[in-house]
Task: structure prediction
Amino acid sequence: MTTLRLILADQLSHSLASLQDCDLNNDWLLIAEVREEASYVKHHKKKIAFLFSAMRHFAEELKEQGHNLHYTHYNDANNQGSLFAEVERLCKQKNVDKIVLTHPGEYRILAEMQSWQEKLKIPVEILQDDRFLSSLDEFATWAHERKQLRMEFFYREMRKKWHFLMDGDKPVGDKWNFDSSNRKALPKGMAPPQPSKFEPDTITQDVLALVAENFSEHFGELDNFHFATTRTQALLVLHEFIAQRLIHFGDYQDAMVQGEPWMYHSHIGFYLNCGLLTPKEIIEQAENAYRNGDAPLNAVEGFIRQILGWREYVRGLYWLKMPDYKAENFLEATRSLPQFYWDAKTKMNCLHQCVKETSENAYAHHIQRLMVLGNFALLAGLHPDEVNEWFLIVYADAYEWVELPNVSGMILFADGGLLASKPYAASGSYINKMSNYCKGCHYKVKEKNGPQACPFNYLYWDFLDRNQEKLGKNPRLGMPYRTLSKMTTEKRQAIQSDAQILFKALENNEEV
Ligand code: FAD
Ligand code: DLZ
Ligand code: SF4
Result:
């Protein structure tokens, strides 16, 4: 009996469900670098290099453990270019009787896998991905019992279930959430530590050359590649975060500083999402830091909430609502993605810096994604399909299960409020409060209208005005809508006119 076990690029975990009960004598593992996955969207060059290198390193480890493993290299002459075609090829070559898979992270791939049994006439078993802390059934049950699917309540259930940061049946510190202490701007002169960096070894060097040659037209820069590509290195990144940055994670979670892309964030999303780290070990280490007195509760609780709360919640939501979720466009947004999302050529300094850093690092931290890149997309009414594709392409931690709810739900309100109780819309004053971008900007953050005014200022009001029918009754937007209703007709016209001038310039591909 020969079983084939396909391992995807984001399944690089020794604890993977489909790797358990493996028969070292008879079974075959398959890891495949394929054109279809590398280019169905034009992923950032660093994202492809990272994944191919991590896949190759993981394959080496599996071979050392004695597994029979077929590794398809991107440039192999007989590489068939898709996961299915590679599976089919190996099934014939090795006389495979059965295929065992772990649930993938994308609806598109699951639908594809579900057709393989019929196509190949071989039994296909798809196992649950138990690397997550909430199963899809468990999330569906939780959601079924509720009208509103608020992350905060899901998170509390998860805290109780896993007994993370609990004292008996009470949350440590008697509060579930310490976010009110987590909104500080970075004080002048305070410099976050440099991120962990790894010199590319020969495997990574080969991959970098391959990506430079085959994906030159993809977005992003390839030089200064320093990501971890093995579990051992990823664990070092985690340890350095816990030792050096976690202490300030809460305080400066929302802060943005020009020239400081990494701040006090953990930079573990890349490794967690491709399987080199597991959520449980990360949370346990963060909790230990609190229990040992090495990090304060607001930092540790805030960090754990991101992983135990948001990460599990968006995955549950994705699988609960797909495939319809992808087509949602509650605000009927239609505008095309401006060119500056690709080339950073904009006079808006906040957007310029965030796109530039995204291109350099295949990374931007959460508040840059949410309150700068996402906020502009929301206010300008960019089409969800184009915004989703951009976010899936540009970040090395992006897979559809996590990217889509964050984009369609969190930033664009395209799901009509399933994920967020109100749109995360903000004017320039928020960006000015949380960053130093405005000091170096062509526009003036204090000006509300006219050619020198910060575009976020008039776009914010124009957004509310334009969407009044859909958002006007949202109780959490009562205050801004009351302010809008008190504005004079002239003021409202000036806002609309400034917004129209900007939209026209975007349509004409002029630099704004
Ligand atoms: P930290 O700030 O150190 O947070 C720790 C971890 O918490 C992250 O690694 C991540 O695993 C988890 N986390 C934090 N926020 C979220 C969230 N909103 N949803 C899910 N997990 C979260 N995260 C991705 O992993 N992949 C994506 O493709 C992705 N796209 C995003 C798109 C938009 C528009 C927004 C607003 C957020 C997106 N996020 C995404 C969430 C978050 O921005 C990233 O997880 C985070 O920036 C990764 O950096 P880090 O590892 O330094 O995270
Ligand atoms: C993102 C990606 C890339 C760039 N390349 C591959 C690949 O060559 N082989 C593979 O198995 N997976 C790849 N992936 C990840 C998949 O496209 C997909 O996003 C995840 O497997 C979803 O779970
Ligand atoms: Fe961004 Fe406006 Fe500040 Fe310029 S002034 S950096 S556009 S928020």
